[in-house]
Amino acid sequence: MSEKLYAISVVVNGMERKAQVPARLTLVDWLREELRLTGTHVGCEHGICGACSIMLDGEPVRSCLMYAVLADGHRVTTVEGLAQPDGSLSVLQDSFCQLHGLQCGYCTPGMLIAAQGLLDATPHPSDEQIREAIGGNLCRCTGYQQIVDAVKHAAARLAEGSLSPRGRGTG
Amino acid sequence: MIVGEGTAFRYIGKKRRTKEDPRFVMGRGRFVADIALPGMKHVALVASPYPSARILSIRTQAALALPGVHYVLTGEEFCAATDSLAIGVDTPKVTRYALAKDVVRYAGEWVAAVVADTRAIAEDAAELIEVDYEPTPHVIDPEHAVAAGSPLVHPAHGSNVLFHRRFVWGPVEQAFAKAEHQLALRVRWGRSATVPIETFGVAAQWDPGQQILDVWASIQMPKYPDQAARALRLPGNAVRVHYDVDVGGSYGVKRGIKHTVLVGYLARRLGMPVRLIEDRLENMRGGDAHGPDRVFDMQVAFDSDGTLTALKIRALDDVGAYAGRAPLQLGKPVSAICGPYRIAAVEYEPTSVMTHKTPQEAVRGFGQSPTNFALERTIDHVARQLGMDAIELRRKNLIRKDEFPYRIPSGSSYDSGDYHTVLDKALAAIGYPALVAERDAARRAGRLAGIGISTCLEPSGGNSAFEPLFNPKNDTTTWMESCLVRVDLSGAITGVMNTSSSGQGHESLVSTVIGEVLERDPAGIRVVRADSLSALPSNSPVGSRMAIMLGGAAAGAARKIKETLIEIAAHNLHCTTETIEYHDGNVAVRGHPEQCMTWDQLVAIAHRKFHQMPAGLEPGLQAKFVWEVPTGGALPTADGVVQIYPCYAFETHIVYAEIDPETAKPSLRKYVCGHDCGVMINPDIVHGMTYGGIAHGIGAALYEKFAYTEDGQLESGTFMDYLIPSAMEVPTIAIVDHCTPSPLTTFGQKGSGEAGYLGAPAAIANAINDALAPLGASIETLPITQDDLWRVITGQTTMKIT
């Protein structure tokens, strides 16, 4: 293809990634197809379902609504970057397993990003705050209840300090 | 089958983490879009803008000239090289192919497929394809479609009606003649579907050396490999479907058989791996995954004391432009046609009709939830006409605990239940008297408030005896499921299942059941999926069947392993098998604990020490079990009486709703679901699916609709207009469990995969209509949108909306 390419440099899950990308390549397609970080999912490609949520400089955003070139110079964290530095599950990830806050797993990476964004900013969220935080992420399996329970559980465990909070790398 | 085996389970029914969750929270699922085959090409589609038109010409030169484009396929070539997809009813002229040829029958139907190096290039090329159409008359309304003079969707079929039959079970006319009261009601179930967050996708690769087509797909479909092979004119053993693909939600609809035949054909034709992943609009418009779209005319006969004596149901279902399996969704409700009620005489007149809309596919409950909604609205109207409490009316007519097994007029025998107790537990959980006081106080304060109740059944076990009922040429009477259990030389256990899953936790199910039988920790039991050529027979996870059928098959295979271990032990300990005691996989002679052998010793004998094996046993340690559906195996009688499903789970929903008088926005303030699906294998999984089913039911009741314009255009092809409930619309839900074991299954389990959705729309519609009652208004069409409520509240609609 003769499409013009643009140089980008993005810190993805703590690692600097350089690439030449066409202007129309979305960030999610770059992450999934070029970097093979397939944990981030595509659900609607029009910014409603939230399955493609990632952290951009620590804030949850939709990677289907961004072009890869817009991420140049920024830090991106995907679901693959949520685990603790030793590779074990983060408190939030482990809480999703404990409370079965998922079924098919398709919306789960986006849910984790949205919930992690909430917990980073609001360590002791109310049910209402949790529902609002995940309100932009659609799930067809769970009816959200076990997700809300899992986020509450994670918040309580983090507050106890019984487990170290997840290492977020440069996210 | 061992009835009532082990009332005290070791692993079954316990809080246990699932096997599947860790890989998904790590982002390490393996969905179809994650599969990258070397040299893989990508498909984009050209869709018809017209609901009904002749295709005059298709010009592809400009698309083919674009660098990176490999091929453009049209219906001309494709329909000559492949066979029509299977049809659920006996309508051979209603053929169906992935690509239209000569005519298009709905807006969104695929007309051409482009194959290119990337999806983006394929989409660019698709835009360069020019199609000339000559629009022809179309029909969108199912009642127009059945009327004389309607445009015909398939003129060769001679009618738009795919299926029509009037079943009469019991003395219906006599009961209506004798009844003290009767009532007629029309309700509508709007066109919605399950709409998984993952669209459908499929990748295929042809191996010319082996002459085999490998397929990876986000599929949930019985007989999928067989149907794909038939349409591709390949032997069944030339299509290998890989079931180790995680499916990102389905709830019935992930049946992309047309996508698969298209991609399989292209992969073979081009000698390149080919992948098609629907984008959201393709999924909503051309994915052929809409749900039931029904008009019900209900009549009920009853006495002054509230006793229901007879029922007449006419159901007109709009399946869209092609038949597929959709007409059969009128068939499953035959298995629970009178709901949980004692109604001795029932007439059922289903009509399946085609229109120029997107085709219908299986949706959670396979037609039962719309029928439950129609029944439950009818019950509420009876209560209102009699001035009787809707709960008392239900209590009076619910089948009593001591009446099971209870045979309904259409032939199904309900296995077990305790409906009154579940209802009472749910009422207690919500605090019913206080809830009534809350509603009445809200009304006095000028708010619109209502309480809705439903009592509904979930037929489960997935024996599709509605197939022969709706198609005499189909004499299928088995719907088996299988499992293979292997113990390897290290003593580790592996269960092999034979289908893909879409979130139901089947790996947890299989490992829990095997662990229960063999008394080994399920955490160490691995569960893998065979591909379709190495698989034992499976009918996929449909019809709430896997806890029953896959659970039963896994238990059966594990028991064979256990029996083998006991035989080996008896042989080596020189005693009879009856005197062997088995604990945690180790064995000892009863009364002689010193005469014992360990699991590892027994496994080693099976694998390596044939000289220590009793005569007649195969070496190695593996067992398969293929299970026929309990109560299956019979064809319907000539008058349409048949046992369809084996097990019947019960659910009752109690909902408190308010409608904001300023904005007409509905909100569900309190929600309790009483649920009895027998023994739960994993309560977290059952509860999760029930919550999800309720959320889906909230969507069907209040938000979700594939709306069409009079011009035949889908108006809601995105998530901005097809509204899926978010965490802000779904309230906190309390589930109240009850357990009435099924006498027909291995551990007393019933199905639960469709739970919640079976009763939620009915209860929500009842709650909203209770809220509207003081206005003298009612809305009998789902979804009940905010706009509908606004028009009723502001008096813009004085008529009842039906």
Broad CATH class of the largest domain in chain A: Alpha Beta
Q: What's the level 1 CATH class of the domain at 366-465 and 638-793 in chain B? A: Alpha Beta
Total number of helical segments of chain A?
5
Major sheet size, sense and barrel closure of chain A? 5 strands, mixed
Supply the number of helical segments of chain B. Answer: 20
Task: Name the helicity range of chain A.
Answer: 25-40%
The strands making up the biggest β-sheet of chain A line up spatially as: 2-1-5-3-4
CATH topology of the domain at 366-465 and 638-793 in chain B: Aldehyde Oxidoreductase, domain 4
Radius of gyration of chain A: 16 Å
Average pLDDT metric of chain B = 96
CATH architect. name of the largest domain in chain A: Roll
Major β-sheet annotation of chain B:
7 strands, mixed
Q: Considering residues with a beta carbon less than 8 A from a beta carbon on another chain, report the largest interface and each chain's count.
A: A-B, 61 and 62 residues
Into which percent range does the helicity of residues of chain B fall? Answer: 25-40%
CATH superfamily of the largest domain in chain A: Beta-grasp domain
Name the structural class of chain A: alpha+beta
Strand content of chain B: 15-25%
Task: Describe this structure in a few short sentences.
Chain A is an alpha+beta fold and 171 residues long.
Question: Could you characterize the architecture of this molecule?
Answer:
The complex is a heterodimer of chains A (171) and B (802). Chain A has helices at 27-34, 91-99, 108-121, 127-133, 145-160, and strands spanning 5-12, 15-22, 53-56, 59-62, 75-77. Chain A has 171 residues and is an alpha+beta fold. Chain A folds into two domains: 5-81, Ubiquitin-like (UB roll); 91-160, DNA polymerase, domain 1 (Orthogonal Bundle). The longest helix of chain A is centred in the C-terminal third of the chain and has 16 residues, at 145-160. The termini of chain A are far apart. Mean pLDDT of chain A is 94; it is low at 167-171. Chain B is 27% helix and 23% strand. In chain B, the strands form seven sheets. Chain B has a seven-stranded mixed beta sheet. Classes of the chains: A alpha+beta (171), B alpha+beta (802). At the A-B interface, helix 2, helix 3, helix 4 and helix 5 of A face helix 1 and helix 18 of B.
